Amino acid sequence: MDQVEIFKALSNKTRLQILGWLKAPELHFPEQPNADFENVGVCVGQIQLKSGLSQSTISEYLSILQRADLISSTRLGQWTYYKRNKEGLEKLSEIINTEL
Amino acid sequence: MDQVEIFKALSNKTRLQILGWLKAPELHFPEQPNADFENVGVCVGQIQLKSGLSQSTISEYLSILQRADLISSTRLGQWTYYKRNKEGLEKLSEIINTEL
DNA sequence: TTGGTATATCGGGAAAAGTCGATATACATT
DNA sequence: AATGTATATCGACTTTTCCCGATATACCAA
């Protein structure tokens, strides 16, 4: 993954917010039936609702974050759940501490 | 400083390279008369030369990095020297570790 | 004060990102 | 099979970023 793409993914207020929400889903989203936050994350619809942006925009934003390895997804039935990707974020932290 | 602006500043290959060069100027730039790397940094002309981009572009890039608190500048005679801003980079690292 | 060098700012054209509504796809339920 | 719901993709339009050359400003030297 190109470093520039990681920073581009983070260069947007809504995408930064999404990462913040996913860091503590229980604080930012209502209870979910059939899928716990820790294991699978939060479904697209909830994220969209909270963001106030259109469904298509949020879907694209999530895939940008995913391409940057900052989040990961799981499909369960008709829902796609996204959660933080700890490894990707640790790698980012390392880039900043060692290369910049 | 807005977090988004920090990440935007980092969303460009050349600007990332500049930060990398400024992390270890002695490895990336020739000796400078009258100004040592540790205290004042590297002058715009040297950075431009190494980047291969135009003078105006590099001048703008440096000011983008400076507005994001990632570098700082010192004017000495007709030269402006830029160096890494440790504090800003530490703050960035903290943002990533605590908010994302 | 005239000219030379270093850097900053301005104006612009091309490319990329932001964001939407419409449509497609995937899955579930009846 | 038909319909409904969740998400992804497409096409378009607007705004922002990239990067340049030209020009302005600041400082220095003769």
Automatic annotation (TrEMBL), chains A, B:
One of its GO terms (molecular function) is DNA-binding transcription factor activity. PROSITE patterns: HTH_ARSR_2. Residues 1-100 form the HTH arsR-type domain. It comes from Pedobacter ginsenosidimutans. PANTHER family: TRANSCRIPTIONAL REGULATOR, ARSR FAMILY, TRANSCRIPTIONAL REPRESSOR SDPR. This is ArsR family transcriptional regulator. SMART domains: HTH_ARSR. The keyword Amino-acid biosynthesis does not apply. Keywords: DNA-binding, Transcription, Transcription regulation. InterPro entries: ArsR-like_HTH (IPR011991), HTH_ArsR_DNA-bd_dom (IPR001845), HTH_MetalResp_TranReg (IPR051081), WH-like_DNA-bd_sf (IPR036388), WH_DNA-bd_sf (IPR036390). The keyword Glycoprotein does not apply.
